[in-house]
Structures are given as structure tokens and as C-alpha cells.
Specification:
167 residues, alpha/beta, 6 helices, 7 strands
């Protein structure tokens, strides 16, 4: 597992929670570092923040999808995403979303579902989001807007599922 976030506290939070569940975790501080280590580490899954220095999460995801060696690697955005960022992430082929702030149980559920999906070969499954109800297929982005930070509905936003249907 490769955890990519420019915030050291968030990286450590994700790493510790995944290690407690038995996952081996390597971390990177931004997308450029992710691309430097991904072929050495050969992770089962990558979590990406969106806003990072040097190379952001969306451009990192696009590069990973463009490389035959990492094209099928499960990618999860773990970020306080705007609607635009969610749609852009879907366009580059991100598999799942976890809205910040999140509960550790939500993180573990998302990771387990992505790892299981990879192990069973379900590459064509629809993207999903994780909120209070756990992993689930998600509705069209147009029908599930995501509020930004300070929108006054952070709890509701976390619970909304954001994605696309029909491919």
C-alpha cells in the first residue's frame, strides 16, 4: 500500500490505521515522490490526496493510469474534494473516494473493498465513495454535490457518495 499526502499527520494517521489492520504501508509526500517509488514498492493500492506540491493527486492519477505497469492499480482519492475535483478524478480513472475528515473504520472499509476487488479481478466495477454507510456504488456526480470546506454541512458531505454510473 502506498499512501500519498503532503500532510505528515494525515500520512501517519492513514499508515498507522492500515498497519494495525495488517497492511504493509509505504508513504510519499507528494505525487512526484509517489511516481519515484511506485515501481520499487509495487503496492496493491495507492491513496492520493488531491492538493499537494510539485505534482497533485489528479495529475499523479493520470500518470499512473497512463503507465501500462500501473494502469490497473487501484487508486483512491482521500481528500476534501470539490465537485470539480471528483469529476476530474473520475475522468482519469480513480476507483474510489474518501472525504476528509474521515473515520478510521471508513478508511479500512474502503481499502478492504479495493483490495478485494483487485484480488477478484473486478477491474470494470463502478467507482465508489465512502461515507457513514460504508463502501457502496455511487450516483452520478450531478445528483450528489459535494460541499467544500466551511460549507456548514461537512458531516452530510462526508456521508454523500460521489461518482458516476454507467461507465
Amino acid at each position: 500500500m502506498l499512501v500519498v499526502d503532503d500532510n505528515k499527520v494525515i500520512r501517519q494517521l492513514i499508515r498507522v490505521n492500515l498497519e494495525l489492520e495488517g497492511f504493509e504501508v509505504v508513504t510519499a509526500a507528494d505525487g512526484a515522490e509517489c511516481l519515484d517509488v511506485v515501481h520499487q514498492v509495487r503496492p496493491d493500492l495507492i491513496t492520493l490526496d488531491v492538493v499537494m506540491p510539485r505534482l497533485d493527486g489528479l495529475r499523479t492519477a493520470a500518470r499512473l493510469r497512463g503507465d501500462p505497469r500501473t494502469r490497473r492499480l487501484p487508486l483512491a482519492i482521500v481528500s476534501a474534494c470539490s465537485q470539480y475535483e471528483v469529476e476530474a478524478a473520475l475522468d482519469v480513472g480513480v476507483d474510489a473516494f474518501l472525504a476528509k475528515p474521515f473515520e478510521p473504520t471508513e478508511l479500512i472499509a474502503l481499502v478492504r473493498q479495493l483490495v478485494e476487488r483487485r484480488e477478484t479481478g473486478s477491474d470494470d466495477a463502478a467507482p465508489f465513495g465512502v461515507g457513514a454507510g460504508g463502501p457502496a456504488p455511487v450516483p452520478s456526480p450531478a445528483s450528489a454535490p459535494v460541499g467544500g470546506a466551511g460549507s456548514g454541512s461537512e458531516h452530510t458531505d462526508r456521508a454523500q457518495r460521489v461518482g458516476r454510473t454507467g461507465g
